[in-house]
């Protein structure tokens, strides 16, 4: 598993904290950069290999 | 009471004139023990010259990332190693975002694109998007598409865009430290064209990019000279991969002093909380700013980062007995 904020392996307390105010940027399964769309009430993040996540 | 606050009370509260640059600087230099009195004065000014209503707005990114400009604070520049990828929002999703915004009671919905200026594809997308929103949602549409030609200004006005955002970002003397791919004067030229078109001018910037207090005062004075309808006030949220990614966050009391100083520089403007308030001020500071000169806010998420839930901000406004400005009040 990869950090969905920085793309590096593992979990990072600073990234977990920052993610409270950020959508994910990297696919946690393959670390590809995802296409992310933020809208007023949520976000979608799409990995070309692993599909869409929502928050 | 410090002498500067006596002078500000007479000039701004009583007469409705903004403070000059030297006085703004004096306000920014006030010690912490004078902060409550400063915030109270800024609040009194806001209540007298703007009233208790708060203008609520939602924003969305129509075209994210891949920008050719090098604004050092921005994760959407294609010139930095930012994790933000280029993506376009389709029209049905744009309309849905406008509906979500209107459901909060907001009167404003701003469509934003990360570009130097719009090309024909973006202008076509805007035309289709504005039309679709106006057919489906009762909300004012604003836009922020970078630098414009006169033809594009005219086209946006004709589409029914009522307000155009183009931030100067910082003062003229510090701008070359923030952006090198275009000039402060080019931004000013777009703002001049927007004003002459009859669209409302929305122009603010970001505090905490390394500018000095003197430059913060210079910026407030330059904005006052522009006299925009609205000033969105951002606090730097350092973005990974950008040149400003390691800068410290603005200290809360400095942010509150700046809010009050900008209010005293521009007593009648819509002074809006924009990005960065969550990390700079937190919940308590957000409340203090609303009681210290702020009279508008972006609710919900931003362009590439997330905000507090809109419900939390609306609840706060209710607690403060500050009514949300209705759509009919914006005409």
Automatic annotation (TrEMBL), chain B:
InterPro entries: Aldolase_TIM, BATS_dom, Biotin_synth/BioAB, Biotin_synthase, Elp3/MiaA/NifB-like_rSAM, rSAM, rSAM_sf. Gene3D superfamilies: Aldolase class I. Its cofactor is [2Fe-2S] cluster; [4Fe-4S] cluster. GO terms for biological process: biotin biosynthetic process. It catalyses: (4R,5S)-dethiobiotin + (sulfur carrier)-SH + 2 reduced [2Fe-2S]-[ferredoxin] + 2 S-adenosyl-L-methionine = (sulfur carrier)-H + biotin + 2 5'-deoxyadenosine + 2 L-methionine + 2 oxidized [2Fe-2S]-[ferredoxin]. It comes from the Bacteria. One of its GO terms (molecular function) is 4 iron, 4 sulfur cluster binding. Keywords: 2Fe-2S, 4Fe-4S, Biotin biosynthesis, Iron, Iron-sulfur, Metal-binding, S-adenosyl-L-methionine, Transferase. [4Fe-4S] cluster binds at residues 67, 71, 74. Residues 52-277 form the Radical SAM core domain. Its EC number is 2.8.1.6. CDD domains: Radical_SAM. Binds 1 [2Fe-2S] cluster. The cluster is coordinated with 3 cysteines and 1 arginine. [2Fe-2S] cluster binds at residues 110, 202, 272. Pathway: Cofactor biosynthesis; biotin biosynthesis; biotin from 7,8-diaminononanoate: step 2/2. Catalyzes the conversion of dethiobiotin (DTB) to biotin by the insertion of a sulfur atom into dethiobiotin via a radical-based mechanism. PANTHER family: BIOTIN SYNTHASE, BIOTIN SYNTHASE, MITOCHONDRIAL. Belongs to the radical SAM superfamily. Biotin synthase family. Homodimer. This is Biotin synthase. It comes from Actinoplanes utahensis. The lineage of its organism: Bacteria, Bacillati, Actinomycetota, Actinomycetes, Micromonosporales. The gene is bioB.
């Amino acid at each position: 598993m990869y950090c969905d904020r920085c793309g590096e392996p593992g979990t990072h307390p600073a990234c977990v904290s920052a993610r409270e105010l950020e959508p994910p940027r990297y696919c946690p399964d393959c670390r590809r950069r995802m296409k992310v769309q933020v809208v007023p009430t949520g976000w979608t993040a799409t990995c070309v290999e692993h599909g869409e996540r929502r928050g | 009471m410090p002498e500067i606050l006596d002078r500000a009370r007479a000039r701004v509260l009583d007469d409705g004139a903004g403070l000059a640059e030297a006085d703004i600087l004096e306000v920014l230099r006030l010690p912490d023990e004078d902060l409550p009195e400063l915030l109270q004065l800024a609040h009194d000014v806001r209540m007298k010259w703007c009233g208790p209503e708060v203008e609520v707005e939602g924003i969305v990114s129509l075209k994210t990332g891949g920008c050719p400009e090098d604004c050092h604070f921005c994760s959407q520049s294609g010139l930095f190693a930012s994790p933000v990828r280029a993506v376009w929002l389709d029209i049905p999703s744009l309309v849905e975002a406008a509906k979500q915004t209107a459901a909060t009671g907001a009167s404003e919905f701003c469509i934003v694109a990360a570009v130097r200026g719009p090309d024909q594809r973006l202008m076509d997308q805007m035309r289709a998007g504005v039309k679709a929103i106006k057919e489906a949602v009762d909300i004012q549409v604003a836009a922020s598409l970078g630098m414009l030609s006169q033809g594009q200004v005219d086209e946006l006005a004709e589409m029914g865009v009522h307000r155009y955002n183009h931030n100067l970002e910082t003062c003229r003397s510090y701008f070359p430290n923030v952006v090198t791919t275009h000039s402060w004067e080019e931004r000013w030229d777009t703002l001049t064209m927007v004003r002459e078109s009859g669209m409302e001018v929305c122009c603010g910037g970001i505090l905490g990019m390394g500018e000095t207090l003197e430059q913060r005062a210079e910026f407030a004075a330059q904005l006052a000279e522009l006299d925009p309808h609205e000033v969105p006030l951002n606090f730097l949220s350092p973005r990974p991969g950008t040149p400003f990614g390691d800068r410290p966050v603005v200290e809360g009391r400095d942010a509150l002093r700046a809010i009050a100083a900008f209010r005293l520089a521009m007593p009648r403007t819509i002074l809006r909380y924009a990005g960065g308030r969550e990390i700079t001020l937190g919940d308590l500071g957000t409340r203090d700013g609303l009681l210290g000169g702020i009279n508008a806010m972006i609710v919900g998420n931003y362009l590439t980062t997330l905000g507090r839930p809109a419900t939390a901000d609306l609840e706060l406004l209710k607690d403060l007995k500050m009514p949300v400005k209705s759509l009919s009040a914006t005409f």
